[in-house]
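Hey all, sorry for the wall of text incoming. These are the two entities for the joint prediction.
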Amino acid sequence: MANLYLKQSGLAHLHLGARALADRNRTDPGVLMRELPTLEMINLRGDPQNSYFTAALKSVNGIILPIIPNTFNCVKDHTKILWLGPNEWLIINSLSTKPLFKRLCTSMKKLHSAVTEVGDGKTTIRLSGPNARQVLSKGCSLDLHSEEFLPGHCAQTILGRSDIVVSRMPDAANINIFDITVARSYAAYTWAWLEDAAQEFESQVIFF
Amino acid sequence: MFLINCPYCGPREESEFHPAGEAHLKRPANPEKLSDIEWADYLFMRQNTKGILLERWVHRHGCRRWFNVARDTRTNKVLHVYQMGDSPPTQLKHIKP
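and here's what came out:
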Protein backbone atom coordinates (compact mmCIF):
# COMPACT_ATOMS: atom_id res chain seq x y z
CA MET A 1 0.00 0.00 0.00
CA ALA A 2 1.20 3.53 -0.79
CA ASN A 3 2.14 5.86 2.05
CA LEU A 4 -1.09 7.20 3.47
CA TYR A 5 0.09 10.79 3.49
CA LEU A 6 0.70 10.57 -0.25
CA LYS A 7 -2.64 8.97 -0.98
CA GLN A 8 -4.81 10.95 -3.38
CA SER A 9 -8.27 10.17 -4.65
CA GLY A 10 -8.78 9.26 -8.31
CA LEU A 11 -10.40 12.63 -9.01
CA ALA A 12 -8.07 14.84 -6.90
CA HIS A 13 -6.86 16.67 -10.03
CA LEU A 14 -10.39 17.96 -10.73
CA HIS A 15 -10.34 20.01 -7.49
CA LEU A 16 -13.91 19.13 -6.62
CA GLY A 17 -13.63 21.11 -3.38
CA ALA A 18 -13.38 24.34 -5.33
CA ARG A 19 -16.14 23.22 -7.66
CA ALA A 20 -18.41 22.53 -4.69
CA LEU A 21 -17.71 25.98 -3.31
CA ALA A 22 -18.68 27.56 -6.62
CA ASP A 23 -21.85 25.44 -6.74
CA ARG A 24 -22.93 25.97 -3.16
CA ASN A 25 -25.70 28.50 -3.88
CA ARG A 26 -27.37 26.43 -6.58
CA THR A 27 -31.10 26.14 -5.92
CA ASP A 28 -33.08 23.05 -6.77
CA PRO A 29 -30.42 20.93 -8.46
CA GLY A 30 -31.73 17.87 -10.31
CA VAL A 31 -28.56 15.88 -9.73
CA LEU A 32 -26.01 15.91 -6.93
CA MET A 33 -22.53 14.59 -7.72
CA ARG A 34 -19.74 13.76 -5.35
CA GLU A 35 -16.76 11.51 -5.09
CA LEU A 36 -16.42 9.02 -2.25
CA PRO A 37 -12.63 8.89 -2.17
CA THR A 38 -10.17 6.33 -0.77
CA LEU A 39 -12.60 3.62 0.27
CA GLU A 40 -11.13 0.26 1.17
CA MET A 41 -12.19 -2.30 -1.45
CA ILE A 42 -11.52 -5.99 -1.37
CA ASN A 43 -12.22 -8.56 -4.04
CA LEU A 44 -13.15 -11.85 -2.42
CA ARG A 45 -13.44 -15.25 -4.05
CA GLY A 46 -14.49 -18.52 -2.49
CA ASP A 47 -17.16 -21.19 -2.36
CA PRO A 48 -20.34 -19.91 -0.66
CA GLN A 49 -21.47 -23.53 -0.09
CA ASN A 50 -18.43 -24.12 2.13
CA SER A 51 -19.62 -23.55 5.68
CA TYR A 52 -16.04 -22.97 6.94
CA PHE A 53 -15.70 -20.15 4.43
CA THR A 54 -18.97 -18.45 5.43
CA ALA A 55 -18.27 -18.94 9.14
CA ALA A 56 -14.80 -17.41 8.77
CA LEU A 57 -16.33 -14.39 7.07
CA LYS A 58 -18.95 -14.01 9.75
CA SER A 59 -16.19 -13.86 12.34
CA VAL A 60 -14.80 -10.74 10.60
CA ASN A 61 -17.27 -7.95 11.44
CA GLY A 62 -20.27 -10.25 10.86
CA ILE A 63 -19.92 -10.30 7.08
CA ILE A 64 -22.73 -12.20 5.35
CA LEU A 65 -22.39 -12.83 1.63
CA PRO A 66 -25.25 -11.96 -0.69
CA ILE A 67 -26.16 -15.12 -2.65
CA ILE A 68 -28.89 -13.58 -4.81
CA PRO A 69 -27.33 -12.28 -8.05
CA ASN A 70 -27.07 -8.50 -8.50
CA THR A 71 -27.70 -7.62 -4.86
CA PHE A 72 -25.58 -6.36 -1.98
CA ASN A 73 -25.61 -6.65 1.81
CA CYS A 74 -24.76 -3.92 4.27
CA VAL A 75 -23.02 -4.44 7.60
CA LYS A 76 -23.56 -1.61 10.07
CA ASP A 77 -23.83 1.17 7.46
CA HIS A 78 -20.11 1.26 6.69
CA THR A 79 -19.44 -2.06 4.96
CA LYS A 80 -21.07 -3.19 1.75
CA ILE A 81 -20.67 -6.66 0.22
CA LEU A 82 -21.62 -6.70 -3.46
CA TRP A 83 -22.36 -9.82 -5.52
CA LEU A 84 -20.07 -9.89 -8.58
CA GLY A 85 -20.46 -13.52 -9.61
CA PRO A 86 -21.41 -16.94 -8.22
CA ASN A 87 -18.12 -17.13 -6.29
CA GLU A 88 -16.94 -13.52 -6.32
CA TRP A 89 -17.77 -10.49 -4.19
CA LEU A 90 -16.62 -6.91 -3.73
CA ILE A 91 -16.35 -5.69 -0.17
CA ILE A 92 -16.39 -1.90 0.25
CA ASN A 93 -15.49 -0.55 3.67
CA SER A 94 -15.86 3.17 4.32
CA LEU A 95 -14.53 3.06 7.86
CA SER A 96 -10.88 3.96 7.30
CA THR A 97 -10.02 3.54 11.00
CA LYS A 98 -10.96 -0.15 10.87
CA PRO A 99 -9.44 -1.71 7.73
CA LEU A 100 -10.68 -5.20 6.93
CA PHE A 101 -7.98 -6.54 4.63
CA LYS A 102 -5.54 -7.99 7.15
CA ARG A 103 -8.30 -9.44 9.32
CA LEU A 104 -9.87 -11.07 6.26
CA CYS A 105 -6.51 -12.51 5.17
CA THR A 106 -5.96 -14.02 8.61
CA SER A 107 -9.41 -15.60 8.75
CA MET A 108 -9.06 -17.04 5.23
CA LYS A 109 -5.62 -18.49 5.82
CA LYS A 110 -6.38 -22.21 5.55
CA LEU A 111 -9.31 -21.90 3.17
CA HIS A 112 -9.50 -22.21 -0.60
CA SER A 113 -10.15 -18.54 -1.32
CA ALA A 114 -8.65 -15.34 -2.68
CA VAL A 115 -8.59 -11.97 -0.92
CA THR A 116 -7.31 -9.09 -3.07
CA GLU A 117 -7.04 -5.45 -2.12
CA VAL A 118 -8.34 -3.42 -5.10
CA GLY A 119 -9.34 -0.08 -3.55
CA ASP A 120 -6.32 1.95 -4.68
CA GLY A 121 -7.15 1.13 -8.31
CA LYS A 122 -10.72 2.32 -8.13
CA THR A 123 -12.82 5.24 -7.00
CA THR A 124 -16.51 5.77 -6.36
CA ILE A 125 -18.81 8.50 -7.64
CA ARG A 126 -22.11 9.06 -5.86
CA LEU A 127 -24.97 10.33 -7.96
CA SER A 128 -28.18 11.39 -6.21
CA GLY A 129 -31.18 13.66 -6.66
CA PRO A 130 -34.50 13.41 -8.50
CA ASN A 131 -32.90 13.11 -11.96
CA ALA A 132 -30.00 10.79 -11.11
CA ARG A 133 -31.75 7.84 -12.74
CA GLN A 134 -32.28 9.69 -16.05
CA VAL A 135 -28.62 10.68 -16.14
CA LEU A 136 -27.47 7.08 -15.70
CA SER A 137 -29.97 5.74 -18.23
CA LYS A 138 -28.38 7.85 -20.94
CA GLY A 139 -25.30 5.63 -21.06
CA CYS A 140 -26.32 2.38 -19.41
CA SER A 141 -28.48 -0.36 -20.90
CA LEU A 142 -29.71 -1.69 -17.54
CA ASP A 143 -33.36 -1.32 -16.65
CA LEU A 144 -32.95 1.35 -13.96
CA HIS A 145 -36.67 1.92 -13.37
CA SER A 146 -37.21 2.58 -9.66
CA GLU A 147 -39.50 -0.47 -9.36
CA GLU A 148 -36.99 -2.68 -11.16
CA PHE A 149 -33.54 -1.61 -9.89
CA LEU A 150 -34.34 -1.42 -6.19
CA PRO A 151 -32.33 -0.17 -3.21
CA GLY A 152 -29.96 -3.04 -2.42
CA HIS A 153 -29.49 -3.97 -6.08
CA CYS A 154 -26.13 -3.74 -7.82
CA ALA A 155 -24.74 -4.65 -11.25
CA GLN A 156 -21.52 -4.77 -13.17
CA THR A 157 -22.17 -3.09 -16.47
CA ILE A 158 -21.01 -0.41 -18.91
CA LEU A 159 -21.59 3.33 -18.51
CA GLY A 160 -20.62 5.32 -21.58
CA ARG A 161 -17.50 3.40 -22.53
CA SER A 162 -16.24 2.32 -19.14
CA ASP A 163 -16.85 -0.72 -16.94
CA ILE A 164 -18.62 0.18 -13.71
CA VAL A 165 -20.21 -1.44 -10.69
CA VAL A 166 -23.41 0.45 -9.96
CA SER A 167 -25.38 0.00 -6.77
CA ARG A 168 -28.54 1.69 -5.55
CA MET A 169 -28.26 2.68 -1.92
CA PRO A 170 -31.16 2.34 0.49
CA ASP A 171 -32.61 5.80 0.94
CA ALA A 172 -35.25 6.89 3.41
CA ALA A 173 -36.29 10.10 1.69
CA ASN A 174 -36.89 8.29 -1.62
CA ILE A 175 -34.26 10.26 -3.48
CA ASN A 176 -32.32 7.97 -5.77
CA ILE A 177 -28.75 7.38 -4.62
CA PHE A 178 -26.46 5.53 -7.01
CA ASP A 179 -22.87 4.61 -6.21
CA ILE A 180 -20.72 4.10 -9.28
CA THR A 181 -17.44 2.31 -8.70
CA VAL A 182 -15.06 2.73 -11.61
CA ALA A 183 -11.40 2.03 -12.37
CA ARG A 184 -9.20 4.97 -11.38
CA SER A 185 -7.91 5.35 -14.93
CA TYR A 186 -11.49 5.74 -16.18
CA ALA A 187 -12.66 7.95 -13.30
CA ALA A 188 -12.03 11.34 -14.93
CA TYR A 189 -13.73 10.20 -18.12
CA THR A 190 -16.71 8.82 -16.21
CA TRP A 191 -17.00 12.04 -14.16
CA ALA A 192 -16.89 14.18 -17.33
CA TRP A 193 -19.42 11.91 -19.00
CA LEU A 194 -21.80 12.15 -16.02
CA GLU A 195 -21.40 15.90 -15.80
CA ASP A 196 -22.22 16.26 -19.48
CA ALA A 197 -25.25 13.97 -19.16
CA ALA A 198 -26.43 15.88 -16.07
CA GLN A 199 -26.15 19.33 -17.63
CA GLU A 200 -29.81 19.62 -18.60
CA PHE A 201 -30.91 18.80 -15.03
CA GLU A 202 -28.76 21.42 -13.25
CA SER A 203 -26.11 19.41 -11.44
CA GLN A 204 -24.40 20.41 -8.23
CA VAL A 205 -21.03 19.17 -6.99
CA ILE A 206 -20.77 18.32 -3.29
CA PHE A 207 -17.54 17.87 -1.39
CA PHE A 208 -17.71 16.13 2.00
CA MET B 1 -30.97 -3.83 -28.54
CA PHE B 2 -29.84 -7.47 -28.59
CA LEU B 3 -30.19 -9.05 -25.17
CA ILE B 4 -28.35 -12.16 -24.04
CA ASN B 5 -29.53 -13.96 -20.93
CA CYS B 6 -26.38 -14.46 -18.86
CA PRO B 7 -26.92 -17.63 -16.77
CA TYR B 8 -25.57 -15.76 -13.72
CA CYS B 9 -26.59 -12.08 -14.11
CA GLY B 10 -29.78 -12.30 -16.18
CA PRO B 11 -30.59 -10.43 -19.40
CA ARG B 12 -27.94 -7.90 -20.43
CA GLU B 13 -27.05 -6.06 -23.61
CA GLU B 14 -24.89 -7.84 -26.17
CA SER B 15 -22.11 -5.22 -25.92
CA GLU B 16 -21.28 -6.57 -22.43
CA PHE B 17 -20.46 -9.97 -23.93
CA HIS B 18 -17.80 -11.39 -26.17
CA PRO B 19 -18.20 -14.43 -28.43
CA ALA B 20 -15.47 -17.06 -28.58
CA GLY B 21 -16.53 -19.42 -31.33
CA GLU B 22 -17.75 -22.98 -31.47
CA ALA B 23 -18.38 -24.81 -28.21
CA HIS B 24 -17.83 -28.46 -27.25
CA LEU B 25 -14.59 -28.91 -29.20
CA LYS B 26 -12.84 -31.99 -27.85
CA ARG B 27 -9.11 -31.79 -27.35
CA PRO B 28 -7.49 -34.90 -28.85
CA ALA B 29 -6.53 -37.47 -26.19
CA ASN B 30 -2.98 -37.98 -27.50
CA PRO B 31 -1.90 -34.77 -29.25
CA GLU B 32 1.70 -36.00 -29.62
CA LYS B 33 0.48 -38.86 -31.86
CA LEU B 34 -1.37 -36.59 -34.30
CA SER B 35 -0.08 -35.58 -37.70
CA ASP B 36 0.34 -31.87 -38.39
CA ILE B 37 -2.76 -31.92 -40.53
CA GLU B 38 -4.88 -33.52 -37.81
CA TRP B 39 -3.57 -31.04 -35.22
CA ALA B 40 -4.24 -28.07 -37.51
CA ASP B 41 -7.71 -29.47 -38.08
CA TYR B 42 -8.38 -29.42 -34.34
CA LEU B 43 -6.88 -25.94 -33.89
CA PHE B 44 -8.26 -24.04 -36.84
CA MET B 45 -11.04 -25.80 -38.73
CA ARG B 46 -14.58 -24.80 -37.74
CA GLN B 47 -18.06 -25.62 -39.00
CA ASN B 48 -19.34 -22.25 -40.33
CA THR B 49 -22.84 -23.47 -39.59
CA LYS B 50 -25.86 -21.96 -41.25
CA GLY B 51 -28.50 -22.62 -38.63
CA ILE B 52 -28.24 -23.46 -34.96
CA LEU B 53 -24.70 -23.13 -33.66
CA LEU B 54 -23.51 -23.94 -30.15
CA GLU B 55 -21.05 -21.23 -29.10
CA ARG B 56 -18.99 -20.14 -26.13
CA TRP B 57 -19.55 -16.60 -24.86
CA VAL B 58 -18.04 -14.66 -21.99
CA HIS B 59 -19.78 -11.92 -20.00
CA ARG B 60 -16.69 -9.77 -20.25
CA HIS B 61 -18.03 -6.49 -18.85
CA GLY B 62 -20.24 -8.18 -16.25
CA CYS B 63 -19.54 -11.24 -14.11
CA ARG B 64 -16.65 -12.39 -16.37
CA ARG B 65 -18.01 -15.95 -16.46
CA TRP B 66 -17.94 -18.22 -19.51
CA PHE B 67 -21.08 -20.00 -20.70
CA ASN B 68 -22.60 -21.64 -23.76
CA VAL B 69 -25.15 -20.20 -26.14
CA ALA B 70 -27.28 -21.88 -28.82
CA ARG B 71 -27.70 -19.25 -31.53
CA ASP B 72 -29.36 -19.39 -34.92
CA THR B 73 -26.80 -17.86 -37.27
CA ARG B 74 -29.49 -17.07 -39.87
CA THR B 75 -31.57 -14.87 -37.56
CA ASN B 76 -29.03 -14.09 -34.82
CA LYS B 77 -31.63 -15.29 -32.30
CA VAL B 78 -30.28 -16.69 -29.03
CA LEU B 79 -32.36 -19.83 -28.50
CA HIS B 80 -30.81 -21.20 -25.34
CA VAL B 81 -28.18 -20.36 -22.75
CA TYR B 82 -26.51 -22.94 -20.50
CA GLN B 83 -23.60 -23.14 -18.10
CA MET B 84 -20.14 -24.53 -18.83
CA GLY B 85 -20.08 -28.28 -18.25
CA ASP B 86 -23.79 -28.68 -18.99
CA SER B 87 -24.76 -30.72 -22.03
CA PRO B 88 -26.38 -28.98 -24.99
CA PRO B 89 -30.19 -28.84 -25.03
CA THR B 90 -31.53 -31.99 -26.69
CA GLN B 91 -34.60 -30.35 -28.23
CA LEU B 92 -32.35 -28.17 -30.42
CA LYS B 93 -30.13 -31.01 -31.68
CA HIS B 94 -32.59 -32.29 -34.26
CA ILE B 95 -33.36 -29.00 -35.94
CA LYS B 96 -31.70 -28.95 -39.36
CA PRO B 97 -30.95 -25.62 -41.04
